Amino acid sequence: MGSLSVSGEVATFTVEKIGGIDETTVEVPPGVTVLRGRNATNRTSFLQAVMSAHGSEWASIKGDADQGHVELSLGEETYTQTLTRTDNGVTGSGLGLLTDPTVADLFAFLLEDNEARRAVERGEDLREIIMRPVDVASIHRQIRAAEQRKEEIDAELDRIASLKRDLPDLERQQATLRDEITETRDKLQRVEDRIDERDVDFQTTQENRDELETALDELQATRSELKRVRNDIQSEQESIAALRDERGSLAVERSGLPESPDERLEALESDIDRLRERKRELSEYTTRLQNVVGFNEELLSGEHREITDAIDAKPESVGDITDQLYKGSKTTCWTCGSRVKPDRIESTLQSMRDHLQETVTEIDDIDDELDELTDRRDEIAETRTRARELTATIEEVDAEIERRQTTVVDLRERRNNLSARVEELEERVTSLRTEEFDEVLELHTKANELELELDRLESERDEVREEIADIESDIRRNDELAAQREDVVDELIDLRSRIDRLEAEATDQFNEKMDDLLDILGYGNIERIWLERTDTPDDPVHNSDDSVTGSTFTLHVVRSTDGGTVYEDTVGHLSESEREVTGLVFALAGYLVHDVYEDVPFMLLDSLEAIDAERIASLVEYFAEYPTYLVVALLPEDAQALPDSYNRITDI
């Protein structure tokens, strides 16, 4: 029975002012229950009350009342529904067994006006009846959304594939630049070494010599500062590259964490609080029950004599003479003072012990469920904490990258200023130089050219390095995207086939059950009644709008003549009995396709008078296999054909 544990439980209905019922209480055990009686004996009214207890509003209020009330006790649960007469009809309130009774109204509550039963007789759209509980338009929207997600993932995967093809060229370019940078640094170092080793002896006046030496000193200092700045830029760029790699790894880890919405965590916390409160209540109750059991056990064993003596202290004339004769073989019940045999108290005590054990078992079950929910809550909390830590770390890394990039910008500006200053100093030295100093000036000029070339190569290398880092970060997402695409494809396959599966299962169930019953019921010259499903060009599985048009269900009737000739007939030529059976089988197909039995324990049958008694008995036996409770309203002469083992109710 799915989520309802009702196997073996007797259902008790308390009904007031429903249909023709003034007030009644009816117990319905599992299995088949026959409501036996003539017309106008409140059989249909009781069936309406059963429907109302499930949350259905297909019930009427007694003519002399403005409100009706139904209460269903099932196992440890109680469901209530109050029907109120308003200007707009009858409205229901309260807690019914079902949140939404639509499927039950269609396929479980098979009264005379049941829509699934009448659809066959009226020639209505059978496919629409079967598919009504399914939100087809929502499925179409989900399909379009999944297709859009797949297209976006495909586009991203194509982009990453293109980047993969570009990556080897970029890596070769990076390696080439690295070699050129190394070669340029070596050249620059050799020139700087020559400058340091050169001993220049100037044949100029002391004034020019001092001025030239000052300019050369400043030029050398500026060049040294330029070299330091260039090294700082390289160091910062390497740090930025390392930070980008770290950020990529952190981002991949964060994207791989499962989603943990706040609503799910709140729901788990609520469930945990509810179970803890229930456990506390049961624990308190268990303690009280243990005290009662323990006290009675002590009383039976002869302890607490002062209590039994006090209870026994009454006049000799009071009490049953039999009690006095058998006083030696009885003991005093401390709750009422009567004399009973000890084994009767022991029997009651054993029932209390059994109930105590059941309560302890329930507490153990709650503990197990609490452990599971707590583990799930902790797992979600840990995931959220890790996601927050990763987000915070990524933000810190981003801030550090931004800070270092700002530093690089400042250093590059400093480098440019120093390069400009070197040029100015070189021009000044040129104006003061002598022939003997020409070689030194040429070395400084060469060194400056190499500095500029080195700056250009390093800037180009940094750009290529950043581009490679971005591509590698995207490539790391490839497996994740491929997994997402596979999930979306599976979702699309499920969505696109869901309607087909339901329709195919509906026709298969109808045809199978119809063949069974035609064989069991033996309707003369009917060879077969079967449901055909044909696709139409505007099948909604492949359509982009929200329409609910799609396959067509066609009901076929095949008869045979006395001579053995087989021919196709129409539904309109079926007898009333044949149409009723066909309608009931169609409703049963919907009942099975939508797994109604998982949530709805009751199936109701009414208005079967068009079918003869023997066939009703076979029909009821066939239907009884599926619901936990099958309640059938029958006339007395029809009820006689059903086995005596069925529960019968004659007075409502």
TrEMBL record:
The keyword Ligase does not apply. Signal peptide: none annotated. Transmembrane segments: none annotated. The keyword Coiled coil applies. Residues 136-285, 349-512 form a coiled coil. Keywords: Coiled coil, Plasmid. Belongs to the Sph1/Sph2 family. NCBIfam families: ASRP. This is Chromosome segregation protein SMC.
